[in-house]
Design goal:
Layout: E1 3-7, H1 12-23, E2 27-32, H2 40-49, E3 55-57, H3 63-72, E4 78-81, H4 88-93, H5 95-112, E5 119-125, H6 149-167, E6 173-179, E7 181-183, H7 202-211, E8 217-220, E9 232-233, E10 235-237, H8 238-252, E11 260-265, E12 271-272, H9 273-284, E13 290-293, H10 308-314, H11 322-338
Parallel strand pairs: 1-2, 1-4, 2-3, 4-5, 5-6, 6-11, 7-10, 8-13
Antiparallel strand pairs: 9-12
């Protein structure tokens, strides 16, 4: 079976991708420093897939340790690189934390496997578009100034990857997947989003508020130029997102694919913050306590994706809707309330 290194593989998207890799006949190997994840997720994955995936607790920003990893795991056919800090708001307050982690980890990894024929999937983000001039945003849209240090790390990381491919010195093939807003959980309710501390993203804060872990929800801004005044986003179920990584590997395995490409991953539909709250209430029957607050630094007003290229190039489309996203996220929240993992 082709062996795939999954960095950040115990995180939210990474853990779901490990499951889909196994389902597709790949052999995942997980690397995670546990700075934003829990070791207990490895046991949860074992319950789903039936065996324990090889795991390295390793900080990818330490070059010597990454070189040791390359010696221990020399025969990879692919790497899926999730290991990055990702909270937009936090990145505004502590930018150096984001620049150090997100750049060092990427460069160390690329250098360690530079001479190998590796298919590299990069976890990018729709934040590379900033506030687009036209919506839905396509992959050909100009990359605007980043609205946050987090967004800037994704922009520059894509440039690093493109420059590496153009230089011609490596044997890499690279696909950058530009995520919109992943939410939801596996239908087993055994894995899902597990933020440490106060969630920076909407849906885990919603579920934690609903179950009593957090206080009322604050909707950051009600005066945006959107139908209901709250920010618009393209929310995508994490299982759909995970399957797209398998599709990206399959594409790069074809001799016809060379070099570098990028794809939007979303549903192509815009959903507002207030609509998410309503969808949660409708799909779960749980009433939420929320209030309107000021805008949050770094937030983009509205963004959703054109996913035509993903459908045509990857042969992939999102299948699960907002109600399933909310009900699965709630099932996961209830599971961890009864089975504490932290």
């Amino acid at each position: 079976m082709p062996k795939i290194l999954v960095t950040g593989g115990l995180g939210f998207i990474g853990s779901h991708t490990v499951v889909e890799l196994v389902n597709a006949g790949y052999e995942p190997v997980i690397v995670d420093d546990l700075s934003n994840s829990q070791a207990a997720i490895l046991d949860q994955l074992t319950k789903i897939i039936g065996y324990k995936v090889p795991f390295y607790k390793l900080d990818l920003t330490i070059e010597a340790d990454v070189q040791k990893l390359a010696l221990a795991e020399p025969d990879l056919s692919g790497i899926i690189h999730f290991a990055a800090f990702k909270a937009v708001g936090e990145s505004v307050g502590v930018p150096l934390k984001y620049y150090r982690n997100n750049f060092y980890s990427l460069i160390n990894l690329l250098e360690a496997y530079y001479a190998k024929p590796v298919n590299f999937v990069f976890s990018s983000s729709c934040t590379v578009y900033g506030q687009p001039d036209e919506l839905p945003v396509t992959e050909d849209a100009p990359v605007k100034p980043a609205q946050s240090p987090y967004g800037n790390t994704k922009q520059v990381a894509e440039e690093i990857l493109k420059d590496m491919i153009v230089s011609g010195g490596s044997k890499y093939k690279v696909i950058a997947l530009r995520y919109f807003n992943p939410v939801g959980a596996h239908d087993s309710a055994l894995i899902g989003e597990l933020p440490i501390g106060v969630p920076q993203s909407l849906v885990p804060f919603v579920t934690q508020s609903a179950i009593g872990k957090r206080g009322p929800i604050t909707v950051h801004g009600s005066d945006y130029n959107t139908p209901d005044g709250s920010c618009l986003r393209d929310y995508i179920h994490v299982v759909d997102l995970a399957k797209a990584h398998v599709s990206a590997l399959a594409l790069m395995e074809k001799d016809s694919f060379t070099g570098y490409d990028m794809f939007n991953l979303g549903t192509g539909k815009a959903t507002s913050v207030l609509e998410v709250i309503n969808a949660f209430e409708q799909s779960t029957g749980v009433k939420l306590n929320y209030s309107i607050g000021p805008r949050r630094p770094g937030d983009v007003e509205k963004v959703w994706g054109d996913v035509t290229k993903s459908a045509e190039g990857l042969g992939w489309t999102a299948e699960l809707g907002i109600d399933t996203m909310m009900s699965s996220a709630w099932a996961w929240e209830k599971y961890i309330a009864q089975n504490p993992l932290i």
